[in-house]
Amino acid sequence: MTATVFEAEGLSKEYPSGVALDQLCMSIEAGDVYGFVGENGAGKTTLMRIIGGLVHPTAGRMALFGEQSKERLASARRRIGFLIERPSLYPHMNAMENLGFYCRIFGIRDRGRGAEVLKLVGLDEAGPKKTGEYSLGMRQRLGIAVALLNRPEFLVLDEPVNGLDPAGIVEVRHILEHLSHEQGVTLLISSHILSELQLLAGKYGFIHQGRLIQEISAAELQQTAQVMICISTSSPAAAVAEMLRQELRRGDIRIKQTGEIELPRSGVDLERLMSLLVQREIPVDGFQLTAPNLEQYYMDLIGGGGR
């Protein structure tokens, strides 16, 4: 039986300005890489702050590693690494000095641990440079290094690739894959780069306006995914889409925000579709089959898919 690392039941948080979490129920099991998906203000960071003990819920219950009492939760949090919002770093210190400070805070006596995590996040050559001179991406990686100092069993990361260039994003993904696959670390990750999150997570929770509206595994997501036909044309997209709706007798043809025309592959004769476009002298700049991504799935789930 797989142990439950985090569990919430009816968890709510209200502020004078409104409800941040509304009767949230979810669980994360040991070994999960859990992708937390939602728009700004949906409640992702609020939940992570509750897990970290930075915010107290208004109602409901929460358990970490099966522990629920105040004293036991404090002890359980020592087994967790956090990067919530921006990392708290001292700008007048270099990377090793910052890590040394946090080692003292966490009670870590392993003198080599700072160098280990710096190498893991690719900052082992940062040297004496003060963190106040770091780029946003460098600060983010150092924040991940701080989160790894205590060799956590559960890692909670809020936008861990924020500010990283494409190479840095890939590097962080490899770090997290190593932690998950080689060390068995359980991960809770929120990210606005959903294409990247889709490469990591094996389970997703979709939150909207404080409510967890669905949980789904990566395998289930693939099973529910439709293959879509995506057409790019220099002709007016609205006119082409309407022609296709009439000729193919389909009401599920839409225009994406990028201006491309999209329709489900199921039930479409590709030869007839191409012949139609040629006969109507419609220039085709691009024609491809794509499976819906995580972003599209979420937008469809909350009713914002552009249909």
- Which fold does the CATH topology of the largest domain refer to? Rossmann fold
Specify the helix fraction band: 25-40%
| SS element count, helices | 11
- Please write the CATH class name of the largest domain: Alpha Beta
Q: N- to C-terminal separation? A: 42 Å
Task: Compute the number of structural domains.
Answer: 2
Give the structure's gist in a few sentences.
35% of the residues lie in helices and 25% in strands.
Q: How do the strands and helices of this protein lay out in sequence?
A:
Blueprint: E1 4-15, E2 18-29, E3 33-37, H1 44-51, E4 59-64, H2 70-76, E5 80-83, H3 95-106, H4 113-120, H5 136-148, E6 154-158, H6 166-181, E7 186-190, H7 194-200, E8 203-208, E9 211-217, H8 218-224, E10 228-232, H9 237-248, E11 254-255, E12 261-264, H10 270-279, E13 286-290, H11 294-301
Parallel strand pairs: 3-7, 3-8, 5-6, 6-7
Antiparallel strand pairs: 1-2, 1-4, 8-9, 10-12, 10-13, 11-12
Helix pairs in contact: 4-5
What does this protein structure show overall?
- With 307 residues, this protein is an alpha/beta fold.
- The protein has 2 domains: 4-217, P-loop containing nucleotide triphosphate hydrolases (Rossmann fold), CATH 3.40.50; 226-290, Alpha-Beta Plaits (2-Layer Sandwich).
- It contains 11 helices and 13 strands.
- The protein has helices at residues 44-51, 70-76, 95-106, 113-120, 136-148, 166-181, 194-200, 218-224, 237-248, 270-279, 294-301, and strands at 4-15, 18-29, 33-37, 59-64, 80-83, 154-158, 186-190, 203-208, 211-217, 228-232, 254-255, 261-264, 286-290.
- A 6-stranded mixed sheet has the order 5-6-7-3-8-9, sandwiched between helices. Strands 11-12-10-13 form a 4-stranded antiparallel sheet.
- Strand 11 (254-255) and strand 12 (261-264) form a beta hairpin.
- Helix 4 (113-120) packs across helix 5.
- The radius of gyration is 23 Å and the shape is globular.
- The protein starts with a strand and ends in a 6-residue tail after the last helix.
- The model has no long low-confidence stretch (mean pLDDT 90).
